[in-house]
Amino acid sequence: MENRGGHYLRELLEMLKKDLFVLEKTEASCCGMTLSQCHVILAIGKAGEVSLNELAGLLNLDSSTISRSVDNLFNKGLVSRKVDERDRRYVRISLTEMGKEVYGEIERNLADYFERVFSSIPEEKRHQVLESLKLLLDAVRENRCCEEGFLW
Amino acid sequence: MENRGGHYLRELLEMLKKDLFVLEKTEASCCGMTLSQCHVILAIGKAGEVSLNELAGLLNLDSSTISRSVDNLFNKGLVSRKVDERDRRYVRISLTEMGKEVYGEIERNLADYFERVFSSIPEEKRHQVLESLKLLLDAVRENRCCEEGFLW
DNA sequence: ATAAAATAGTTGTATATTGCAATTATTTTT
DNA sequence: AAAAATAATTGCAATATACAACTATTTTAT
């Protein structure tokens, strides 16, 4: 029935979210950090160099939250800060060598994991799964009501 | 290419996770609570009545964390606690009338949202999307290395 | 029947996270 | 030159988190 589709969709997504949450917590813990710190490291690592406000936008968190999180990672020697020479309001945030090592390890572990997951999907279904996720993502985005919200 | 499938899969999942994170934060904020509190309310509401340890298991958090979270919601009048008569070590946790109202509102909003998302998927693709999510979930679970971890 | 072990939940401790408001420093606009 | 805007930090206060230790209760072993 049509009005059960959304329900089942949500159930599947919630189970998926939960399982991936466990994955990430375990991964973060193995690397001696919290989940939030792990998210920050991954976002910085992926961007290479990023401003604080950009990072806040990427992670959808308040800039004050990110400022403190980055401060904490800076104190641990994982992150570096450089005032932008052209515009001294900006701070350019990137990973230190140590930070890159941590990032690399997490990245490898997650990459390996998702390759294994992908390989566990029946071969003739793999393209369908990817296509379906894209369709779902498009639908999710289509139903945003505004830039940061999803409800009316 | 085979070794790009996992990469693309992960990218899609991360974008999806992010968008849904924004959705939930907005929803929680609209109901005057934090995301974590929202998770707790939804878990209790769905279970009807649940023990603290069960709740901790459902949310994959330490029982001490849940104990304090439930305490906070109790103080707000959203949650009730009853010592189990048969075994006084147990506390039976459920929602108060007020808690049920909050739960009902969040549930309706999320249900509506996911119905809209589902309806935005091209009709001939809907079954495929659901099937694909199920396949993906199975693959994710197949690659757990232990009960609470996903890596080795 | 009693003691030991196990379980459920709470509390102490310490750290981390979070966002709003206010602040400082800098750049842009008027 | 002054006002406005922007980036980031800090103050404030609440919430969240997990480990360890604890209390109360039940189960298991003796």
What does it look like?
The structure is a homodimer of 152-residue chains. Chain A has 152 residues and is mainly alpha-helical. Chain A has a single domain, classed as Winged helix-like DNA-binding domain superfamily/Winged helix DNA-binding domain (Arc Repressor Mutant, subunit A, Orthogonal Bundle). Chain A has six helices and three strands; from the N terminus they run H-H-E-H-H-E-E-H-H. The first copy, chain A, has a three-stranded antiparallel sheet. The first copy, chain A, is globular, with a radius of gyration of 19 Å. Chains A and B meet through helix 1, helix 5 and helix 6 of A and helix 1, helix 5 and helix 6 of B. The structure holds a DNA duplex (30 and 30 nucleotides). Chains A, B: InterPro entries: ArsR-like_HTH, HTH_MarR-typ, WH-like_DNA-bd_sf, WH_DNA-bd_sf. Chains A, B: This is Putative HTH-type transcriptional regulator YusO.
Q: What does the secondary structure layout of this molecule look like, with pairings?
A:
The structure is a homodimer of 152-residue chains.
Chain A: H1 2-30, H2 35-47, E1 49-51, H3 52-59, H4 63-75, E2 79-83, E3 91-95, H5 97-120, H6 126-142
Antiparallel strand pairs in A: 1-3, 2-3
Chain A binds a DNA duplex (30 and 30 nucleotides) through α4.
